[in-house]
Amino acid sequence: MSETIFTKIIKKEIPADILFEDDRVLAFSDINPQAPIHFLVIPKKPIATTNDIGPEDEAVVGYMHRVAARIAQQKGVAEQGYRTVMNCNQDGGQTVYHIHLHVLAGKPLGWPPYQQKLKVE
Fold this sequence. Notes:
By secondary structure, this protein is an alpha+beta fold. The chain has a single domain (5-105), classed as HIT family, subunit A (2-Layer Sandwich), CATH 3.30.428. The chain contains 2 helices and 5 strands, in the order H-E-E-E-H-E-E. The radius of gyration is 15 Å and the shape is globular. The mean pLDDT is 92.
């Protein structure tokens, strides 16, 4: 797998607003937030797409979700709710080929995005 912007962030060659880091994962604020709270959780092991997750990667992918939940709790949005998204390949919207879990919160995130609550009169 070729080097990506995320491997450069892991190596500290590119600055990032790091929210959490240990030997398995790194979490940092998204530079182009799509919600009031938007951060990414990435494995330090480079895995290109969801299709490339192997049996040996199952633990770290689960751990990414646990880290996301911990940060959401710290940011005070766990109870209200948040969205987690992992895009896969071009048609799935993936632009960086190193898996990453988007975590979005801080506003209602209904589906579809234009969904509105119906008023009963």
